Each structure stands twice: as C-alpha cells, then as structure tokens.
## 1
Amino acid sequence: MNYTKKYYYAFEDRYQRISSQGLEYWTVGLISVADSIERLRRFITFYGLSPNNTKIIEFGCGEGHIAKYLIQQGYEYLGIDISPSAVTNARNLLEKANLPGDFLQGDITGLNMLKGDCYNVAIDNFCLQMLVVDADRYCYLAEIKRILKNNGKIYFHEICKKDIVIDRLDSFQDYTDLYMHDFGALRDFEVFHSNKKQVIQLPKLPERYRSNKEYKKELNNAGFIADEIQEEENRCVIYAHK
C-alpha cells in the first residue's frame, strides 16, 4: 500500500479492490445496514427531528445506504466521502431508487467549500474511528462544529475499544510504530453480494478505536456536549449538540 498521500486515501484503494473482484457494493450485509438505520432512527426520535426543518450532512457517507433512508424520509441531505468510487456508488444507489441525492467527494479534515452554520444535524457512522492521527481527528471535529448551526445535533456511531495510546499520535508513522500493523498484507474479509456471504482478499485499513469515556472526552474537548451515550458490546453511540 502506498501511503505517500494521507493514509485515509486507502479507502479509495479498498473500493477499487472490491470492484475488481466483481462486487458492486462494499457492505457487510442487509442486517448491518438495517442495524445502522435503526440506531439512527432512535437518534431522530430522541431529538424529535422533522424533515420540514432539518438539513443533514453525513461525513464518510460511503455508498449511500443511510442517505437512501434519510432522503426517503424527506430530509435535505448532503453526503461527503474521501473516496470518488464511494461517491459514484452512492449516486448510483439513489439513481436506481429514483431518489435525488447530493454527494461531494472531499477531505473531512478540511471542507472550505462548505459554508459554516448551515446544517442542523451531522452524522458520523464509523467515520471518526478511521482517523488515527490526533491532528486529523481534531480538524475533523472542528469542521463539524463549524458547519453545524448553533445547537446543531450530531450522531456518532463508532467501534468501542480502549485505546492503547498513552499520550498522543502526531503522525501516521507513530501509529504504525505503535500498532505494528502490516498494511500491505492481504487478509480474508467477509462481504455480502446479493445478500450472500463470500470471502475476498483485502489489506487492512488504518483505524483507531477508543473507549466510551475517551470518545466522550474527545467530543467535549472539541466543544460538543453529550446528551446521550449508549454502549453495547463493542459499539458506542453518542448523541451530542454544539
């Protein structure tokens, strides 16, 4: 894997590898998609959100499964992903469903093309955990805060594990030195095609999980106030506001 670009550009490589192996979408199955949507539905109910007055932005939108649900509910929506292939797949997914969709390929740590204070809700479904360097996580959270309106709501859904980092990670090299992952080695990876499970070969992606307490502290330091924290097995869901 060539990491001369930012390490999270590896997601484009992942989508291209999946496509080259004959899979149209990268998903872990309909059950996983349904689970993510049900968790998001509970967030919407918690805050009493309505499509009539709610603009939603999703960071790390992937192939548009959450976008499809939200647009079907009538929400005004923008999805952002670093991967051009993901954005193309998301547009195709909505086109097949005859739904309008607004997507943007961009780096979530710097979205100068977007105005501030213009969205009511931000969604992060397994996105923050894919940023492993402290400065990248800080810039990403700062962008969310800038883009959200006053009292805007944010939904975080991440894998939850205690972080082995004692102090800080200032570079991707620090991350590789600490975690000792071989990002070039291929591993078996379960995917679903036509709702049937199959195994393909893919390299590992950089990822940095944190504990429930550590995620909350990270959000507080970025200026967000947590309203609800849910932890079950290895998942952490946080509802917060600006």
## 2
Amino acid sequence: MVAAPLVLCIFLLSLILITTAARATSTSIHPRPFLRPRLFLWSGITVGIIAASWVSTTATLGRGPALAAPVLTLAVLGGVIAAEVSARRPRGPVRTASLTARAPRRYLPPALTGAVLASVLLLGVLMVLGARTASSDDLGRQSRTLVYRCGELIAGRVSPWPGTFYTVPLAEALGAVIVLSAIGLWALTHRPPTSLDPGTDTAERHRSASRIIAAAGLATAVPLAGYSLIMAAALRSVPAMQQGVACAPAWPGILVPALIATQIGAAILAIWCLAVLLAPLSPRTRETR
C-alpha cells in the first residue's frame, strides 16, 4: 500500500524542515528576518500540493482523494512550524521581558477551532460507523461494501462503502496531522517575540495559530465531505422493502438527510480553512499585561 509510506515520508520531511529551520536560526543572522519564515511556509505549501496531487492519482480505489487533504496538511504544518521555529528576536537597543503566561488556547480563533473540533467528532463517528457495518467486496477486499438483507436472503451489496479499507490509512494520516498540530501550537507559544511591540507579536501568534487550525480543519473537512457523499450515495441504493419484505439496515432513510447536511457543512468548512490559510485571520490585538 503506497499511502502509509507516503504519509510517513511527508511527516519525516516536515520534521527535517523544522530541524533545518531551528539550526539555521541558531547559527546565522539573516538581514531580512521576515523572509525566511515565509520561505519555509511556502515551501511546505508547495511540497504539500505536489504530494497531494501525486497521492490522489496513484492510490487505488478511492484512497487517493481521501488522503490528499491530510497529506497536503502535513507538509503545510511542517512549513508553518518551521516558520515559527525560525523566528528571531528583534534587533534593537532595548529588549523587555514579558511576564505574560502564554498558553496555546490564548491564540486560537474560537469560531474556527469549534468548527474544526465538531468536524473531527463527526468524522470519527462516520469512520466508526463505516468500519462496523462494512463487508468484503466480490473480490475479497476487506471492508469495502455495505451488505443489505431482505428477510433470510442476502439481497445485495453496495460499493464503495468507507470501511476499514479506507478508514485505517486515513486514521494514520490524521494521527500524524494531530501530532504536528500539537507541535505547531507548542512552537508558536514558546518561540521568542518577533517584535518589540507586544501587540504586534501577539497578532503574529494569532495568525500562526489560525494557519495551524485551518490546516488541521482542511485535513478533516475534505475527508468528512467525501465520507458523507459516499455513504449517502450508497444508502440511497439500499431498498426499504423488496418483494414485500423489509430490508435491513433500516436507517438509510433517517441518515441520508443528515449526511447531505454534513457534506454541505464540511464543504463550507473546507472553503473557510482555505481562506484562512491564504489570508490568515487578523484578530483584535490583545494587550500584554
């Protein structure tokens, strides 16, 4: 399976990028201190786009589109974290030490963070539901179809269905995204100030936190939309009754409208996250006390 090695490779490349940024920061002085962080950020975005395009066309049976967003996110997070690690203290005649206690939640955008957490919860529910109800397909590939029964006979099966065939590699990729997101929030909290003005430094941390949350949100919103679309399409093919006999499972009629609403919400969240990545939020500057 090509997906798991690729996810691991992108994860390791992100860590290498972060380490390179840290070493470069500690051993050199750059005449334009804001150029290097942007270089790391856009390097991550570029690598992510290339890797996502490649995995979406090479991974088989629909795994590629499911993994494209997490793979893109891993590279973007690597660039964001490297940009944070490469941040330098401002050069000036006077330096002041801030006694403000910093915590990651202080810099998180509340609305976007809440939406991302909701998408993670919904995606987890759909992944568990899909894995527990999936069966092997006609070629023996495990957990790719949904079997429906009418009475004592197996009436048919619908495919694709997001069982463990898709859930396992996606869970691995999302686990790597969570790890890098946590590293990124830690890095932006503990890095040195980039400005002598506390308000400007706080705004920069807000923007970095927004990028991290948006990247993580993109990694969950795209698979969530895909899961909702696939499950709704499959459940529409399950008859409620056949030859006067009720068919099981009996919950498609209830679940399909909810899946359609989830798909729309996930698409809106994905657009929101992309907008934040391209033009990060500009929150009100909080005064450092």
## 3
Amino acid sequence: MKEEKSFILVLSYIVLITLAILISSLYIGFTNNTTLINSIILLVTFVFSLVIINILLIIILIIKLFKKNNLNNIESKILYYSVSLYYPLVLTITKITKIDKNKIRLIYTKINNLLIQSKNVKLKPEELLILLPHCLQWSECQFKITNDIDNCRKCGKCDIHKIIELKDKYDVNVAVATGGTLARKWIKETKPKAIVAVACERDLSSGISDVRGLPVIGVVNDRPNGPCINTKVSIEKLEDAIKFFIKGE
C-alpha cells in the first residue's frame, strides 16, 4: 500500500494547493467591486471547485479499485482519464515534496493494470505482443536478440530462455527493444491488439501513456545488479498477463 499512499498523498497536496488558490480568489472577489474581476473570480472559483471534486473522486475510486478490484464501466473511464490528465502534474509535485518518483510511476502502472484486468478481454495469441527490454539478456552474451529472440542459445544465465518457453507454449509474438523508438517500430510492424510490456517503472509508465487506446499490462522488472543491466522478471507474473489476454483468466 506504500505506493498507493504516496500517490494519494500527492493528490492531497494538489487539493490543498487548489483550495488555497480558491480561497484567495474568493477573498479578492469579496474585497473588489469591479464587475470584470468578479466575473473572472467566479469563473476561477467554478473551475477550481471542479478540480477539487474531481481529485477527491479519483482518491475514492483508487481506494475502491485496490480494495475491491471492481469498478463499473463509468467509474473505470473516469479514473483512467482523470489519472492520465493529472499524472504529469503529480510527477511535478514529487520534485517539490521529495516523494520517490518510482513509487508514483509504479502506482500509475498498477492502476492501469487493474483497469485493464477489470475488462472482458480475449484475444488470439497472434494478436498479443510481449515487449521486452534488452537488459533482460545477460550483458556478456554474444548472441544478440534484438532482431530475433530465437537467437538465444538457452544457456540459462538470464531469463530469456524461460520467456522463449512461454512464447512457444502460448504461440505469442515476443520482441526485444533497446528503447522507445524500436518499441514503437515493433508495435507498428506487428499491429497487436494488446501488449504485455516488461520494463522499469519509468519506461512502463511512459510507454503506457504513449500507446493510449491499446490495452497494456505492465510487468516491472527486478534490478538486482542496478538499472539497465542483467535485469530479471517474474515469469509467473508474465505468464499470468499472457493468460489474461488469450484465455480471459
């Protein structure tokens, strides 16, 4: 719950800032007799009141989503579009409050995953793309897999051979990307109807934002050796995401 609390805390800061602006606007309006200024104050008050109501609604829906894992269609759409709208502002607030950005990025990915998993989705295996970062491969391996994951020699020094086993078991498309440009290239070429993406918190959150309208389940990688080198992934979580899309489980 730590990530959820961090996200809600930042949203609360936004509410307080908005409330302060709202009170200041009302004070100016009450102490000023100019019609134009009063009209502007009235408009500002209305807009910021809507912002406060919207953020409070987001907080309620986030709590409900994580406790019950069940939102109706309208609630899901409100939460999805509202979180997408405020997400850049939330990241900006973390710079001021010194809250770990990765916690915010992780909760953004979790919210996205839960919203996707609340839908009834069932695809053909060929309609699903598994998108992997190149840092999953053992850094000293001479057999590069960015063009073809089957170049892997299955030596067991990284998780790639296990992912190939999933690929063969479920007959899904798997691609390895060295960055956002190559990831977009794979998406354009394979034209998937859904994506299971493995990456760090930063790349997952930005990638999910980039492909709005396309269902994406994000699986955060483990980084026992630091970022971007010899990373790991939970094969169980990866398989669960695959099964959700092609079996509806």
## 4
Amino acid sequence: MKILLAIISILFFATNLQAQAKIKKTEPIQASAAPQQVISDKDKDGVPDHLDSCINEPGIASLNGCPDFDGDGIPDYQDACPKKAGTPKLKGCPDRDNDGIPDDLDDCPDAFGFPALNGCMDLDGDQIPDSKDECPNRAGPINNKGCPEMNQEIQQLVKEAQDAIQFKTGGTQLLPSSEAFLLKLVQTIQKNQELKFEIYCQTKELKTEKLNQDLAINRAATIEKFLIDKGVYSKRVSFKSFSKTDKSMPKSGNIHAKTQTLIVPLFINP
C-alpha cells in the first residue's frame, strides 16, 4: 500500500511539472528597455550642442543656434553692426541712402554720395562735398570755401576804384574821369552775370557824424544810379554807407563767397 501511494505521488508531481513547462512556453518574452540617450543643449535654445555654432548663447535654429539682436538675418558674431539692422553686402551695417557706404562711415547718411567724399555729393565737381561747399552749384577752390575766386580783371578794377571814383568837393556829382572808370565797371559786371555788386562808401573829413553819413549815402546812391542807368540790372547792385567811426568798413575789395557779391569799398574824402 505504501508503495502504491509513493508511485501515485511521483506521477502527480511529474504531471504538475509538465503543466508548468507548457505555461512558460506560451508566455511572451519581454525585451529589456534600451537606455535613453541624453541630448546636450547648454544654452537651452532648442538647438542641440552638436548642431549649435553658439553653444553658450541662446539663438535661433535658422542661424545654427546663434543670436541675431537686430533681426537682419546675420548672426551677431558675423555682424559689424549687431545692434542696427543692415545688409549682408555691408556686413550687417545700415545704409540709409543706398550709396554703398555704411551710415557710421558716411558724412552724409541721408543723401546719396561718393566714397571719395565720404558719402557726400558734389554737384559742381570741385571735389568739395556739398555739405561743406558754400557755393555747391559753382566750382571753386577749397581756400575760398568752394566758391569761385575773383578773377584778375575784377581784382584790378576793385584796386583802381579807390582812386578812380571821385566826386566834386563836398558834393555828389561824379568827376568825368570817374564816369569813364564806371563804364569799364559796367562792362565787367555784364561779363560776369553770376556776380552781384555792393558798393560801400565812407567819408571822414566833415565836421559832424551826420554830415559824413549823409554824404556817404548820397555818393553811394549816385554810383548805384549810374550803373543802373547804363544797363546793369537793379537787383545786381546795391550800396551801403558807413559812419566815419565804423570800423567794420572793409579795407579792401572781396567777394562774399556764398552770395557771390563783390564788395567795392570806397573811402572818399569830401
């Protein structure tokens, strides 16, 4: 009897082992999870460090992770003007007048100009920028602020005027020799249409300041009338008188560069 029970126990144990083996065969085998890869992004701009040209500065993906402060599409490290929007041609610098010269190097950033004149125009071609040229439409040397100089013929006439223009003593009537000289002056005025003429008169020898002033005014007016009567356009000639104590009276003739006005000073004794 004991032997029979032992045989039954052995058979039961074997059957149980076979059943467990079948269960294990039908269970799916679970694969072990692969370790997750960590992508480095030091500046937290969303561009992985291995693709980021500026790994220590937050930037934008289209510029490989580099910043563009002025938004001109040029990364700051390649931008010569990183705080002002510009063009690739000028390395990111602005050029308001589109003359090819960056505004920070352009003396005339709002007017088209030439590199030789630091971005400024030169309408009269005298190599003086219009911004520094007192006569931008008439060529002249730099020592005359860009305005034409008085030619030799005019210089000579102005020198001669002091002695050539004379009046009768104490009066406003021109001497015949003075009229001949003024006719030469008329010819010169007509040949130089761009010039205006201003006659300055000063008389010093009369007793009172008023007498000197009145005589100077009347004599200057006489010269002006003579020139106009001989065909000089009235808007091209004018006069001014100076009191005998007025030290602003010019000592010699000259051209006011900007207005192209020839100053003819006359110190005429009574």
